[in-house]
Amino acid sequence: MIRKQENLKSFNLFHYLKEQDQQSMSIPYFIADDTTYKNAGVSFPIRNFVYGIGITYTGKPGGVKIGSADYVLQPGSLTTIGPGIVSQWEPDHNAKHETLFFTESIFTDIIKNSFLSTLPFSSPAGSM
Length: 128
Hints:
This protein is mostly beta strands. The protein has helices at 13-20, 34-40; strands at 29-33, 46-47, 51-58, 62-66, 69-73, 78-81, 86-89, 96-102. The strands form 2 sheets. It has a 4-stranded antiparallel sheet. A 4-stranded antiparallel sheet has the order 2-7-4-5, with no helix packed on it. A hairpin with a 2-residue loop joins strand 4 (62-66) and strand 5.
C-alpha cells in the first residue's frame, strides 16, 4: 500500500497502476477497474498526469472530489479528467467501474495529438 509520505507532486497514478499490474510502460493506455483501485490503496489526493475517461456501472452512490468540487457517482455516471487536475476518491467507494487512462501518444500517427488539450474536459474547470 502506498503511503501519503510519497512525493505527491510527482506521484503518477498511471505509472503506479501499470506497475502494480505489471504492464509495459511503453503502451500509452491502461484500463483500471474497481479491483485495481482497491488493490492500489491510494486514498489521498493525486494530481493526474494523463487523461482519463471512466464509467460507473453499478453499486451504491460514491463520491469523488475533483479540484475543489465534490461529485456523487451513480450507476451510469461518466467521469472525464485531464492532466494537472487533482482528484480524490472516497475510500469506501465500492461501485463497479472502469477507467481508461491514456497519454496523448495514443493518437500518434492518427491525428494531431495536441487536440486533447483543447477539449473542455481536459481543463481543471471542465472536469466531470
